[in-house]
Design a protein that fits this description.
Mean pLDDT: 89
CATH topology of the largest domain: Rossmann fold
Structural class: alpha/beta
Shape: globular
Strand order of the largest sheet: 14-15-13-16-17-12-1-18
Radius of gyration: 26 Å
Strand content: 15-25%
Distance between the termini: 49 Å
Number of domains: 5
Helix content: 40-55%
């Protein structure tokens, strides 16, 4: 199917609306605000709004909307802005790349608005650098107390609120209190990337902030902005359950040029939908079979700039494609440069062709006019397509835009649904289509909805809230005090968290489960650690040394999931010393070195040293992974499906040199896990995302394979399957 996606023009705010919003403040002459940006500023200054959800399209300036308040200052004059609560922002981005990009962008904003706010970006390795050998928590506290804009990630913010940072000289309350008292606005960017556990963690923090100011009766709680081009009903439901007042702000768009009332944000796009027809066809084979399409974009550019992106779902596929394209185009007369941008490689966005994964979706800012992509869900489809055709005012002229969406042979219903939905809207092959509403709605309706993990909310999320209550009542209680000075605060939180997680002002069931877990010496601590982590992570992270293309590209050093390495590469285990020596020879920057040291702290360890791998080459096809469990687990007699700490895991397949040594390490490694008797296919049929980390496992006394998952994902799957088991059976039909 071929369509022409029409250009998109965003509605500018009418002068009277801008004047009413600014209340005497001035904008730079070259700045014209879109309607949604002005509405965001007005909502921030509305005392009856606690949370703002901005769902304007990608490329329509949602970031500027979020930062307008500190940039223009408070009503009455910019001079008072430094003392104003809404002039301070704690921004949270899902990737380091995105926070870096936003820091650069914020620098541009400051130049435009003639502002000089104090800005600091903070992530794990950066915090270690700022500590300079000292206490990381104290370094974090110093930044919170001295900066006006902090750019960090939701993981660090979540750790602050949950008392996971400990200083030598201050009480545990100092960091969460400072994060609430010093910052008037929390920005959660690209929040559509997350699901129920992360939504619940964000609401836990916002309720905490609200109740703190209610008890103190001083000032007002921080406001929050959730910035995402995709609406999420589960998030809205949680905001309502938390008793927070919210405003949803949307962009207003049209397809016709109107310079006085609208500004262009997206160029027209020639869109092509390609349905693969056999299992041996993939986006990789499609791209390699259509190299002429890429070459044609450069040969017919007519002097205009051309840049292409290929976005795939698999790191291994991205790696192989980047290598193949690099070899092809370096030998051609075009001499095009190819960059690989994934969780393992960070090439230059200035190269001609970018091959990447979800890392490209958020965190990498670049201009392209040729896009080839696949997507696992509607949000990913729209996010990736939103990278194409962005209109910039810098005068650079790009070539005409074209997109090629590749649909797997395993999911033909997606393309069939998209075609049907468009035809139902009166759109046929070759037609023009409005992009912001008609095309978006057709895409959303074409992808089956994925599970939201709603049962996690009632089963596990409330325990995070009660952890905070326990800290206030017991850990922060001074010796000799009859009761904590925070008792009134804790009592209000009990009522609020009961309403949020159980829909009644009673935390009793959550309290009882919390103290049962505290007494569970086998798995209670590991379960609470998983609950308190924001997005979890693989317990099988290892040192990753990519030497597969050392001749043509720099060797890379990071940490990555062991199971990916086993399935997608030919590898060898190396000592930590060899890993360190190779990293030094590769000429790592000081920042890279600190990042690697920080990441390796959480890697799989053997004899107090991180386990490290050297990748020799990427395999042409992904190998099958099957785990097995030896009878070393002391809970093995209890076969009931529940979250527990397991030992004795081994790799059954794939085999190969070194697998015996690896299995000896794994057998002693204790991991939080959940084993289900259901096959993985059954979870996928019940709309668990296909990229969710589910693995096959062979248990000692059974012939059939089971499904296992680890860490936070174990809690998510357990809560979901528990509702399936406890769901009342439907009565059988009576046939007469």
């Amino acid at each position: 199917m071929h369509l022409r996606l029409l250009p998109v023009y965003s509605k500018l705010a009418e002068p009277a609306l801008v004047e009413a919003a600014l209340q005497g403040r001035r904008l730079p002459d070259e700045i014209r605000l879109s309607e949604h940006q002005v509405q965001t500023l007005m909502a921030l200054e509305n005392p009856d709004v606690d949370v703002i959800v901005n769902t304007a399209m990608t490329g329509d300036g949602k970031s500027l909307a979020a930062y307008l308040r500190p940039l223009v200052g408070p009503p009455g004059g910019i001079g008072a802005g430094d003392e104003d609560a809404l002039g301070t922002v704690l921004s949270m981005y899902p990737t380091i790349e995105l926070s870096r990009d936003q820091k650069r962008q914020f620098g541009n904003y400051q130049r435009f608005f003639n502002r000089s706010l104090r800005v600091q970006e903070i992530w794990g390795a950066k915090l270690t650098e700022l500590a300079n050998g000292g206490n990381r928590a104290e370094a974090l506290l110093k930044q919170l107390q001295t900066q006006q804009v902090i750019l960090t990630n939701p993981d660090i913010f979540n750790a602050m609120i949950n008392y996971l940072y400990h200083t030598r000289f201050f009480t545990a309350q100092e960091i969460p209190q400072t994060a609430i008292d010093f910052y008037g606005l929390y920005l959660f960017d690209e929040f559509h990337l997350f699901s129920m556990p992360q939504f619940a963690a964000a609401m836990t923090a916002l309720v905490y902030a609200q109740q703190r100011f209610t008890v103190s009766q001083m000032g007002r709680a921080p406001k929050a902005i959730f910035s995402s081009a995709t609406q999420n009903e589960e998030l809205f439901g949680l905001i309502r359950a938390a008793g927070l007042r919210f405003a949803v702000i949307q962009g207003s768009y049209q397809t016709q040029e109107a310079p006085e009332t609208h500004r262009k944000i997206l160029e027209p796009v020639e869109f092509h939908l390609h349905q693969l027809t056999s299992d041996d066809q993939t986006i990789e084979t499609w791209v390699l079979g259509h190299l002429d399409l890429i070459e044609q974009a450069w040969r017919e550019c007519d002097g205009k700039r051309v840049r292409a992106a290929v976005i795939v779902s698999s790191i291994a596929v991205a790696h192989r494609l980047a290598r193949a394209l690099r070899e092809h185009f370096s030998a051609s007369s075009l001499g095009l440069r190819v960059a690989e941008i994934t969780g393992l490689h960070h090439g230059s966005v200035q190269d001609d062709i970018i091959v990447g994964t979800s890392t490209v979706d958020v965190g990498v800012d670049f201009d392209i006019n040729l896009l080839i992509f696949e997507a696992a869900n509607a949000g990913q489809f729209l996010q990736r397509l939103g990278r194409l055709g962005r209109y910039h005012l810098d005068g650079e002229v790009m070539g005409p835009c074209q997109a090629h969406a590749i649909i797997s042979a395993k999911t033909p219903w997606i393309s069939a649904g998209l075609i049907k939905n468009l035809r139902d809207a009166g759109i046929n092959d070759g037609d023009e289509v409005e992009r912001s509403r008609v095309f978006r709605d057709a895409v959303v309706a074409s992808y089956p909805g994925e599970t939201s993990f709603q049962p996690y909310l009632r089963r596990w999320a409330g325990l995070q809230g009660y952890h905070i209550i326990h800290q206030l009542r017991h850990e922060l209680r001074e010796p000799g005090e009859p009761r904590s000075r925070y008792e009134a605060f804790a009592t209000r939180l009990e009522t609020a968290y009961g309403q949020l997680f159980l829909k009644k002002p009673d935390c009793g069931p959550i309290r009882r489960r919390f103290y049962v877990l505290r007494k569970d010496h086998r798995s209670g601590k590991q379960i609470m650690d998983a609950i308190l982590s924001f997005r979890g992570g693989s317990p099988f992270q290892v040192g990753y040394w990519d030497a597969s293309e050392a001749v043509t590209t720099p060797e890379s050093f990071t940490t990555y999931d062991l199971f990916f390495i086993l399935q997608a590469t030919r590898w060898e285990m190396v000592s930590y010393e060899a890993f360190q020596d190779a990293a030094r020879r590769a000429g790592q920057t000081k920042e890279d070195e600190l990042r690697l040291v920080q990441e390796l702290q959480w890697a799989l360890h053997h004899r107090e040293q991180p386990v490290c791998f050297r990748v020799l080459e990427f395999l042409p096809e992904r190998e099958s992974l099957l785990l097995e469990q030896a009878r070393e687990d002391d809970e093995d007699e209890d076969a009931s499906p529940r979250v527990r700490v397991l030992r004795g895991l081994r790799i059954k397949t794939p085999g190969g040199p070194g697998i015996g040594d690896l299995n000896q390490i794994l057998a002693r490694h204790a991991v939080l896990a959940y084993i289900s008797p259901l096959k993985r296919e059954e979870f996928w049929r019940k709309r668990v995302p296909t990229m969710f980390p589910l693995y096959r496992i062979k248990l000692p006394r059974t012939r059939d394979e089971s499904t296992i998952c680890f860490g936070k994902e174990a809690l998510m799957i357990e809560s979901l399957e528990r509702t399936w088991r406890h769901r009342p059976k439907q009565p059988s039909a009576i046939i007469i």
